[in-house]
């Protein structure tokens, strides 16, 4: 088991009262092979939940276990290594770039976790290649490249730490459609080639339906659904989750209603197009 939540709750302290962010969460995430999407309305507790996965936040009650390490930790117990094993990509991660060159920025994480200069350089070059950052840019300033390239550099900085689990908090936010597709393809490739568990927070249900195998729905800090994406999108009470249907499913439902085409769920555009071509040739 990679990450386990046992009856975990967390509240943010206000001036007059606390605000319950997550409440009585029970959750198991395998250390490899999963592609999970965490969805829900704004304020449902998604970011709070994932920040418990690498000890940026500690539970107020209950226990989070990350690769055998219990949180909250015992007195004087070090937890910094967890942040290497669970890599968290924040929203707009390019805002955290600060070094004078791209390669130094990507090397920062490995060096912070005690890699030698040579080891950090090797890890950084490997991560840059995975993220499609050209080698001829590595000695340039990260502030002289496009926004999309800056996002790739920031992601490469997390990948260079070689995390066992990758957590992505709205990783495509602010990117154009091509940028979103390209970045998600990087994560999909990492998942498939390395069998790495990836956890994705997103409001984009098209991305969720295309990439995720398992979906967790949060509502007011509680898990209201945890299962296969097929079971979520065909759930008889889907509307109660306050989520939007992915566009391919909307199209298929409309075609079924207006053109009599047999409804068969398809969760991405290539599958949708292939099915419509098949129907057209019948």
What labels would you give this structure?
23% strand; 6-stranded mixed β-sheet; 3 domains; Rossmann fold; 4-stranded antiparallel β-sheet; 282 residues; alpha/beta
Describe the structure.
A hairpin with a 2-residue loop joins strand 4 and strand 5. With 282 residues, the protein is an alpha/beta fold. The protein is 37% helix and 23% strand. The N and C termini lie far apart (47 Å). The strands form 2 sheets. It has a 6-stranded mixed sheet. A 4-stranded antiparallel sheet has the order 2-1-4-5. The longest helix is centred in the middle third of the chain and has 18 residues, at 177-194. It has helices at residues 46-51, 82-85, 102-112, 117-130, 147-159, 177-194, 205-211, 229-233, 247-259, 269-280; strands at 3-13, 18-29, 35-39, 61-66, 69-71, 86-89, 165-169, 197-201, 214-219, 222-228.
């Amino acid at each position: 088991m990679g990450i386990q939540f046992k009856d975990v709750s967390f509240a943010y302290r206000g001036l007059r009262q606390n605000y319950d962010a997550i409440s009585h969460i029970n959750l198991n995430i395998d250390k490899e092979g999963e592609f999970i999407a965490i969805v829900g309305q704004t304020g449902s507790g998604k970011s709070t939940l994932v920040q418990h996965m690498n000890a940026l936040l500690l539970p107020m009650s209950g226990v989070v276990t990350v690769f055998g390490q219990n949180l909250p930790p015992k007195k004087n117990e070090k937890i910094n290594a967890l942040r290497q094993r669970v890599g968290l990509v924040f929203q707009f991660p390019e805002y955290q770039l600060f070094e004078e060159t791209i390669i130094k920025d990507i090397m920062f994480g490995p060096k912070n976790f005690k890699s030698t200069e040579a080891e950090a350089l090797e890890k950084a070059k490997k991560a840059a290649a995975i993220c499609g950052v050209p080698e001829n840019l590595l000695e340039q300033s990260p502030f002289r490249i496009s926004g999309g390239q800056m996002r790739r550099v920031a992601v490469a900085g997390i990948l260079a730490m070689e995390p066992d689990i990758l957590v992505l908090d709205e990783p495509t936010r602010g990117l154009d459609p091509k940028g979103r597709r390209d970045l998600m393809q990087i994560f999909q490739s990492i998942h498939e080639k390395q069998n790495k568990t990836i956890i994705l927070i997103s409001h984009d249900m098209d991305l969720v339906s295309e990439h995720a195998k398992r979906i967790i729905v949060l509502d007011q800090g509680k898990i209201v659904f945890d299962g296969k994406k097929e079971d979520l999108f065909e759930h008889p009470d889907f509307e109660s989750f306050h989520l939007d249907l992915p566009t391919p499913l909307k199209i298929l439902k409309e075609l079924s209603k207006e053109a009599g085409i047999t409804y068969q769920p398809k969760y991405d555009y290539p599958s949708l197009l292939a099915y419509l071509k098949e129907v057209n040739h019948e």
